[in-house]
Write a structure and sequence with these properties.
The chain has 269 residues and is of the alpha/beta class. The protein folds into 2 domains: 194 residues, Hexapeptide repeat proteins (UDP N-Acetylglucosamine Acyltransferase, domain 1), CATH 2.160.10; 47 residues. Helix content is 16%, strand content 25%. Helix 2 packs antiparallel against helix 3 and helix 2 packs parallel to helix 4.
Length: 269
């Protein structure tokens, strides 16, 4: 099908639009933006910078993608923003491009960002990440596949969030979150993301292996975390155990979130 551009929209001649793209009223596509086949831009969308929008994305009213980062170190050099195929951005979502020359802010495929969510410069989101309304991500945040952040959650810059993590609504996330965790409002692990694990399609053995890895790492009975990591290295023999191990061994700028101090919450069931 032919691309449709509303008469009130402004599209830079340098922009590249795929087939079957719809650009709604009062949209602005500024600079060498690339928009993939089948994308739909509702009214008032603003795309700028070296931004690439994958195929079949839907951008709802007043979405802003690729604008200058809110970082005093940014000096106007060329940086990028990439949005993966099938991603949906709801009303008033803002996604800023990278800060350092040549750097990027990246969203994977099939992400779903609800109204008012903000993704700061140099964030990297995996596939199928969901941000509920008004989630705020600081710069350089990394989020794994299938993670879900509840409405109003606030994530500190440089934090890493593992795959299939569930963050509580209005939660603050000042430290890295191990894969498959359920994070309480105060930024500590309340247990496993049981719903996410069930939806992941992992078998019962994998769920048991995740539970065992958590017990080794977090129910240490006075032992050190380093010793717990060494113990997990000795017994890990499955894909999910090695994913958790790789996450905790990776260099962290923020440290790892620990278990809840609430005895009723901080248990691995």
């Amino acid at each position: 099908m032919a691309t449709s551009i509303h008469p009130t929209a402004i599209v830079d001649p340098k922009a590249k639009l795929g087939s079957d793209v719809t650009v709604g009223p009062y949209c602005v596509v500024d600079g060498d933006v690339q928009i993939g086949r089948g994308c739909r831009l509702f009214q008032g969308v603003y795309l700028t910078g070296a931004t690439q929008i994958g195929e079949d994305c839907v951008l709802h009213p007043h979405v802003i993608v690729g604008h200058e980062p809110q970082d005093i170190k940014y000096d106007g050099q060329r940086t990028c923003c990439r949005i993966g195929r099938g991603t949906i951005l709801r009303e008033n979502v803002t996604i800023h491009r990278g800060t350092a020359p040549g750097s990027s802010t990246v969203l994977g495929e099939d992400c779903f960002l609800l109204g008012g969510s903000h993704v700061a410069h140099n964030c990297t989101l995996g596939n199928c990440v969901t941000l509920i309304n008004n989630v705020l991500l600081g710069g350089h945040v990394t989020i794994g596949n299938h993670a879900t952040l509840g409405g109003g959650a606030v994530v500190h810059q440089f934090v890493r969030i593992g795959e299939f993590v569930m963050i509580s609504g209005n939660g603050r996330v000042p430290m890295d979150v191990v894969p498959f965790a359920l994070l309480e409002e105060n930024g500590r692990i309340a247990g496993l993301n049981q719903v996410g694990i069930r939806r992941s399609g992992l078998d019962k053995n994998a769920a048991s292996e995740i539970r065992n890895a958590y017990r080794i790492l977090f129910e240490r009975n006075g032992g050190t975390f380093a010793a717990a990591v060494e113990q997990l290295e000795k017994v890990a023999n499955s894909e999910v155990e090695h994913k958790i191990l790789a996450f905790v061994k990776e260099t962290s700028k923020r440290g790892l979130a620990g278990m809840s101090r609430d005895r009723n919450l901080g248990k691995i069931r």
